[in-house]
Amino acid sequence: MINQTDVLDFLPALAAWGLLGLALCSTVEKLIPIVPSGGMLIMLGMFGVSSLSDMPGVVAVTAAGSTAGSLFWYILGRWFGPKRGDALILQMEKRLGVGSGWYWRLKDGYRDHRFGVTFVGQIIPVARVYLAFPAGALALPAMRFAIATFLGAALWNTPYLVSGYMLRRHMFDQDIALPAAFAAIMLAYPLLFMGYRLSRPSRNAARP
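That's the Alkaline phosphatase sequence above. Prediction below.
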């Protein structure tokens, strides 16, 4: 069984590999859900960003690593397909006692708003890890899924990475680093949702 402490102890050593290490860390976060995303990204901001000029590159490589992890679950979903995928989720629900409502909601959302659900889903804890599986099971276009995942992951990663950098520079009190990063995400989410709703044509306008 994977031990959370062992994984967390391993991540700083992996981050020391430079940009490749940062990408691998963000991939691990998607593959091993026991790794807390916010804490890991703050750590990467502390150890992987030496100056603000490095920030765009670090955001890009961590978003790419996160996308790679999501593509693993996407490919797994494609392999299972919709029927076997549904059966697997039901089995997990029975064995682990975990509700599967999130899975069916994601599937319903994907039927109408594929890009938007993937993008916004990257800033929702828990869902950001598992939404790739139903996306693959429903055979969403891989390229659009990857692009939406990359953009959403970049949005999720940035506040945490910046918080880690500011901690390293002693510009941020340690006790407020994680809450501040989480607050930035929570503020971004309703703004994204409003923009998404406003960008959609109304049902009345869609009618001939």
